[in-house]
Amino acid sequence: MTQRILIIYGTRPEAIKIAPVVLAMREHPDLTPIVAVTGQHREMLDQVNTAFGITPDHDLDIITPGQTLSGITVKSLLGLEPIIAAEKPAAVLVQGDTTTCFAAALAAFYQQVPVVHLEAGLRTDDRYNPFPEEMNRRLTTQLADVHLAPTARAREALLRDGVHPAAITVTGNTVIDALLRIVETDAPITDPALARLLRDPERPMMLVTSHRRESWGEPLRHTAQAVARIARRFPDLDILLPAHRNPLVRAALLPPLAGLPNVVVTEPLDYSDFSRAMRRSTLVLTDSGGVQEEAPSLGRPVLVLRETTERPEGVEAGSARLVGTDEETIVTEVTRLLTDQEAYQQMAQVASPYGDGRAAERSIAAIAHFFGLGEPPDQFRPDRSHPGA
Q: What is the reported pTM?
């Protein structure tokens, strides 16, 4: 009997990481995906679904101006309750650490439906950093029945939380599957500013993304001031900043960068354009979780604009470095990478610890095994290659 799996997500990062699983599940003879989105993000979510050919079966469209975490949680719970009751899925699959992820897992638990947690086990051990993600993923762990851990370190964190070893599969991260699929396509560039930057592949470029809730206010201003100093110090360096649409982010981040000729500010890029931008970049400055995984897979050094990270594998391997939001530290570290070729190569040539492009395959095998439909999958172990580089 075919097992119907209700896959629930609401944001662009979730959509990127879930898309390879949806596509792989469509090909499985015994598993049927049903897709529900909350719409916690809207346009950015829709762009990713379109890029991967996914049309949701259910769309709650909960987004409202100035929405709060409580509002997202309540609307998601109330909206998902009748969908789960009507679809009667064999399991609910959630991804990562968003408020949608936690609310969907809780909604499934309330109806005694098993929960599959994709990208389980990430931890900073600081409940407020990142906020609210660290607590969302910890709570989801307590609700989940199947834990798809991206790395061996994530598996260890789950074991410390009391998860049974048999419930955990180390899959690698599906973001690498998504990235490799997208960069192999020859989709046209949709953003004209990015198209202009890509015309000169020899000119160095730094990609910057910063938007996290814990950085709102002064930390974002310090980051912007550092980027402005870098732009003036290196006039031949193009700096690309796809600006998050949150007005609080823009109010802090954009004023220090105004009028700088080598700083290009765009609207949020669709996933195909953003992947091309990463591949074109010399280095990446970011507070994003997914970008910490994606850029090293393309051989791009990452400077992380956070005090902690739930993805320490890249830091330990040497492909990423925590720089926080201190202005002097950011300027010093970027300058070092742009002027010291040996230091740059030490980061750029580190093999990615995050995936090999087979994470969705392992995830599907683990779900099937949970229902007694196959053998357990092999466990992901990093190799020395650079997929997609």
A: 0.86
Sheet holding 263-266, edge to edge: 263-266, 238-242, 205-209, 283-286, 302-304, 320-322
User: Is the pLDDT at 90 greater than 80, yes or no?
Assistant: yes
3-173+355-370 CATH pick, 3.40.50.2000, 3.30.40.10, 2.60.40.10, 3.40.50.2300: 3.40.50.2000
Domain boundaries 191-348, CATH class: alpha beta
| Choice among 117, 212, 244, 279 that is catalytic | 244
Query: Pick the catalytic residue: 97, 214, 238, 361?
Result: 97
Determine the pLDDT at residue 383. 67
Q: Where are the beta strands (DSSP E) in 196-289?
A: 205-209, 238-242, 263-266, 283-286
Burial of 379 (0-12, 13-18, 19+ CB in 10 A): middle
Active-site choice (59, 119, 177, 273): 119
Instruction: Name the nearest CA neighbour of 205 among 271, 255, 276.
Output: 276
Active site residue 133: yes
In the residue annotation, 213 being an active-site residue is answered as yes
Residues sharing a CB contact under 8 Å with residue 197, sequence separation 6 or more, in sequence order:
205, 238, 240, 264, 277, 280
- Tell me, yes or no, if 97 is annotated catalytic: yes
Model confidence pLDDT, tens digit, residues 103-142: 999 999 999 999 999 999 999 999 998 899 999 999 999 9
pLDDT in tens, 202-227: 899 999 999 887 778 888 999 999 99
244 in active site = yes
Of 59, 133, 270, 333, catalytic:
133
